[in-house]
Design a protein that fits this description.
The protein is α+β, with helices and mostly antiparallel strands. Helix content is 18%, strand content 28%. The strands form 3 sheets. Strands 2-3-4-9 form a 4-stranded antiparallel sheet, with no helix packed on it. Strands 5-6-7-8 form a 4-stranded antiparallel sheet, with no helix packed on it. The longest helix has 29 residues. The structure holds FE2/S2 (inorganic) cluster. The site of FE2/S2 (inorganic) cluster (FES) has 11 residues, from loops.
Length: 162
């Protein structure tokens, strides 16, 4: 009888422990990501927090990719957008007017899914957040933060990182 009571108590503790852990994981998963650091290696050693407060300055380019040839200007429709990569990170390139290109991280600020151009917007396939393709601002949640801008320049008929 004592054994049964002890087993029951252990089971409850185990369930409580996993429940609390599960709750913490759920909370972590639902929190808007604000670290701005997309360089995680997936090894699990990253605590996921930084000391900078997270809101950032709006630009989160992979700085070591400056000078990288990103795309042909002609591949980006005027008034449209394409997906690309800079420094191995997914980005979105828009050409609001002929010869003017803006770029944004394609990592959703909600839970880090990869956002893609869709019609006249950037759309996250995971929970439906939508972003303005010329400013990165949130058009529709659940994301709360805009897509960080990524510096690019137009050099002749090429789009260059930096
Ligand atoms: Fe949830 Fe993008 S990850 S809307």
């Amino acid at each position: 009888m004592d054994d049964a009571r002890e087993l029951s108590r252990r089971t409850a503790l185990a369930l409580g422990g996993s429940g609390a852990l599960g709750g913490a994981l759920i909370l972590a998963g639902c929190a808007p990501t604000d670290s701005g650091d997309s360089g995680g290696d997936g090894a699990g050693a990253d605590s996921g927090s930084t000391t900078d407060g997270g809101s950032g300055d709006g630009a989160s380019a992979p700085t070591d990719a400056a000078g990288e040839d990103v795309a042909a200007l002609a591949d980006i429709p005027v008034g449209g957008s394409i997906s690309a990569t800079i420094g191995g990170e997914p980005v979105l390139l828009s050409q609001p007017t002929a010869g003017e290109v803006v770029a944004f991280s394609a990592i959703c600020t909600h839970q880090r899914c990869t956002v893609a151009p869709e019609r006249a917007s950037f759309v996250c396939p995971c929970h439906g957040s939508m972003f303005d393709p010329t400013t990165g601002e949130v058009e529709q949640g659940p994301a709360l933060e805009p897509l960080p801008s990524v510096p690019v320049t137009v050099d002749g008929d090429r789009v260059i990182a930096g």
